[in-house]
Design a protein that fits this description.
mainly alpha
């Protein structure tokens, strides 16, 4: 399983490295979302600073949808998706590999968006370790859930519109918990941030376990 996961992750990341879709399209889109928020909310009233954590994770969530769609779009033509099953690859390994590739892309985007939040929203970092843990655990949950629902919608003609409808409700708890933990890390709340990180870990475990168990059947249906 782990060997197959490494093969799939390496394949997806090499394709992204050659195509540079994440760099040339997803990253500018994510930054544009932050800029539009800055225009929509008057920075002089301090609204941006107070809402920085939530806006950051909304931008990450939108970017994750694009990353997941790209992950399955690269195998949508010429029967490439069928080729995943021919070599006898472990379905759980395929799931973990594709989720790992999406997570790696999201990690890079979060670094970019984090810098954007600091520059555009005047946010101050008060808990670096808490914020790092939040980003890591939330990224695992986003990538796992996105990959799970991505393969479910991959075989349908309406996959571009169906994927957000399936994924966004499932990721609402992740968005909420990540925002609350990030607010503590940015000094905007006195809540227990680690409690929210623990909740994120629960959802991440659920999504990863569900993906390992169900990905094979969903891939066959797709």
């Amino acid at each position: 399983m782990w060997r197959d996961a490494g093969l799939i992750a390496g394949k997806d990341l090499r394709i992204e490295g050659h195509s540079r879709v994440t760099t040339n399209q997803v990253a500018p889109f994510a930054v544009l979302v932050l800029v539009l928020f800055a225009f929509a909310l008057d920075p002089d009233r301090g609204v941006l600073t107070k809402a920085a954590a939530g806006l950051f994770w909304v931008a990450v969530l939108f970017s994750s949808l694009l990353a997941v769609q790209r992950s399955f779009a690269i195998e949508a033509s010429d029967g490439a998706r069928d080729g995943l099953r021919l070599p006898g690859l472990d379905p759980a390994g395929i799931f973990l590999g594709k989720a790992a590739a999406v997570a790696a892309q999201l990690a890079g985007l979060q670094l970019l968006l984090g810098a954007g939040v600091i520059i555009l929203y005047n946010a101050d970092l008060h808990g670096a370790l808490l914020l790092a843990a939040t980003c890591i655990v939330a990224t695992v949950g986003l990538a796992a859930a996105g990959t799970l629902y991505g393969v479910h919608a991959a075989g349908l003609k309406v996959r571009e519109t169906l994927l957000p409808l399936l994924t966004l409700p499932a990721l609402a708890p992740v968005l909420l918990a990540a925002t609350r933990a990030s607010e503590v890390a940015l000094g905007q709340s006195v809540d227990d941030g680690w409690r929210w990180v623990g909740l994120l870990a629960v959802f991440a475990i659920i999504y990863v376990t569900a993906g390992i168990l169900a990905f094979g059947a969903l891939l066959e249906e797709a």
